[in-house]
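Feature request disguised as a bug: please show the residue count (153) next to (2Fe-2S)-binding protein in the output. Example input:
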Amino acid sequence: MSRLNLNGKTIEVRSAPATPLLWVLRCELKMTGTKFGCGVGVCGACTVHVGKQAKTSCQETLADIGASSVTTIEGLQGPHVRALKEAWLRIDVVQCGYCQSAQLMAASALIRRNPRPSVEEIDCAMHGIICRCGTYPRIRQAILEATGQVRSS
Ligand code: FES
Ligand code: FES
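Example output, currently without the count:
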């Protein structure tokens, strides 16, 4: 048994301390909003927040996380998240949707630490999350709109 501070609640999980968080979320807790892509830290599909940082959950074990807070797409909230979601819908960012939980996790971590990121800062923060559908230009536009740097059309 391990303790996990997840989406604002401390819970007990059966998984061993060496288990990667992604497996705990999807296999034990059946929280499938966090996606499995590569399992080896290269696609970014499994991105969650550990503390205030966006991290790939396939690369963080329960032992690594310890008492740090974990936020998944199911628990992501706040005014900046609402602004992102509204911009995402307005621009119709999503294609197949597979990568989009991770894109929102990375975007929200970015604008929480940098409320008005430049295009270069957006591209740098988002570059680790692969979108096979190529939604990158719409993601960039949505972040710029959500942060009030361009007007919505
Ligand atoms: S599944 Fe974690 S980085 Fe690809
Ligand atoms: S929307 Fe399909 S992989 Fe990104």
